[in-house]
Design a protein that fits this description.
2 copies of one chain form a homodimer. By secondary structure, the first copy, chain A, is of the alpha+beta class. Chain A is built from 2 helices and 7 strands. The first copy, chain A, has one domain: Alpha-Beta Complex (Nucleoside Triphosphate Pyrophosphohydrolase). Chain A is globular and about 45 Å long. The termini of chain A are far apart. The A-B interface holds A 1-2, 4-10, 41-49, 71, 73-74, 76-78, 81, 83-87, 89 and B 1-2, 4-10, 41-49, 71, 73-74, 76-78, 81, 83-87, 89. Chains A, B: It comes from Tistlia consotensis USBA 355. Chains A, B: It holds the Pfam family NUDIX. Chains A, B: Residues 6-134 form the Nudix hydrolase domain.
Chain lengths: 140, 140
């Protein structure tokens, strides 16, 4: 199976906090300095949920139990990442405590109140819109 | 991005037909000769939905519009495939016409009426159970 080439895999995390949407400022290209969801490449040996929780912790310092993540969708358009075909599995997390702080390859972390008005890297605005629909449709 | 190693990606398709669940008999290991969902590795340059429709066509001769597929879930347990870490993105398709015929690496294709009583390869029984819940929960 080593020789089989398939798209790369990443996981992104949508976190709505009381003050707004949790976003990072990207520390590296593409979209260096731009807003993006916390997330990154999945590692061999971890589940998509574990990858999502790990990236969230690495980039924002916030901890979430992987078992509590809810699937938002799978984003597999071959053109969504200019570096090559990379599929994102996006989750949303409910966090009731903790304050984010930037880490890893995030240059900064922000809670953005008016997130509909900012530009985001990749197709992250679409992922956020899908996550909003999921929250609106839930009975919680 | 070429050097980044992430898990392999596959797509599987759950198709409930009037006579039962559409399953193939695997032509190759693992689970050679066993029941499995139609599916296979995703190719670079295609969406997950396109991969799902392509594999369905190659293995069973049935055609489905990728845009009509509904996401069942993402299955990313590192141990789900004995060959290595492979994540499956599973969809379900509604097909109202066409008769399946075996092709490609499927040894045979069957419509199995009592699918709860047969053993399936990988974690496909779990994927089918999730798809059943999705259909039951839908208002169609």
């Amino acid at each position: 199976m080593k020789d089989i080439e398939t798209p790369k895999l990443a996981s992104d995390c949508v976190v709505f906090l009381p003050g707004g949407l949790l976003l990072i400022r990207r520390g590296f290209p593409p979209w260096k300095g731009g807003y993006a969801l916390p997330g990154g490449f999945m590692e061999v040996g971890e589940t998509a949920e574990q990858a999502c929780a790990r990236e969230l912790a690495e980039e924002t310092g916030l901890r979430v139990d992987p078992a509590t993540l809810r699937l938002v969708g799978v984003y597999s358009d071959p053109g969504r990442d200019p570096r090559g075909h990379c599929v994102s599995i996006a989750f949303t997390a409910r966090l009731d405590q903790g304050l984010p702080r930037a880490g890893d390859d995030a240059a900064a972390v922000e809670v953005v109140p008016d997130w509909h008005r900012v530009e985001m890297a990749f197709d992250h605005a679409r992922i956020v819109a899908d996550a909003e629909r999921l929250w609106l449709g839930s009975v919680e």
